[in-house]
Amino acid sequence: MDLDNIIIEFIKEHHVLTLSTSVDNKPYSCNCFYTYSQDDNVLIFTSDVETKHIKDAQINNYVSGSIVLETMIIDKIQGIQFNGYMFEAKDNLLKKYKKIYLKRFPFAILKNTALWYVELRFIKMTDNRLGFGKKIIWEK
After folding, report:
1. Would you state the pLDDT for residue 47?
2. Residue 110's pLDDT is what?
3. pLDDT digit string (tens) for 73-106?
4. Which of 2, 45, 111, 116 could cysteine-pair with 34, CB 3.0–4.6 Å?
5. Phi, psi of 91 (to 5 degrees)
6. Whole-model pTM above 0.85?
7. Does residue 112 surpass a pLDDT of 90?
8. b/e map 115-133, b = 16+ CB within 10 Å
9. d(C-alpha 89, C-alpha 56), whole Å
């Protein structure tokens, strides 16, 4: 099933995601700048290997998260909830994803962090512009 264009455009329009991990039934969430590779359907972000969310993902790489539009106007509410598998970008993927990430966030070249990606498996989008509580579901 192809990813809906409404979801793709929403993901491309934004740049901060909330990422959630869980180890031993202890959830943890953080926020990260991200970019999106439509070709691979992955969210790409940087993070230090010493952070709790990275340590957690190295134990349990099945993660969830959200991307939302902040608004108080009910008719404009939009957001996605997602889950998928998180990996460190290495070798050819590191080169490819680093180029994509630095194009969007050139200042990141100054950071000495690892590059990570979430291979999306499930997305639920709420888009009130299409009708109150309208949901679009995508699953791989």
Report:
1. 94
2. 61
3. 888 889 999 999 999 999 999 999 999 999 999 8
4. 45
5. 50, -125
6. yes
7. no
8. bbbbebeebbbbbbeeeee
9. 17
5-139 is a CATH 3.40.47.10 domain = no
Residues with Cβ within 8 Å of residue 2, at least 6 apart in sequence: none
Q: What is the DSSP letter of 82?
A: E
For residue 129, give the nearest of 87, 74, 84, 63 by alpha carbon: 74
Torsion region of 91: left, alpha or beta (phi above 0 gives left; psi -120 to 50 gives alpha): left
DSSP three-state, residue 65: strand
Q: 25: left (phi > 0), else alpha (psi -120 to 50), else beta?
A: left
Could you identify the residue written with the tokens 């230090």? Answer: 48
Direct distance between the N- and C-terminal alpha carbons of the chain, in angstroms, rounded to an integer: 7
In tens, the pLDDT along 7-61 reads 999 999 999 999 999 999 999 999 999 999 999 999 999 999 999 999 999 999 9
Q: CA-to-CA distance for 95 and 9, rounded, in angstroms?
A: 24
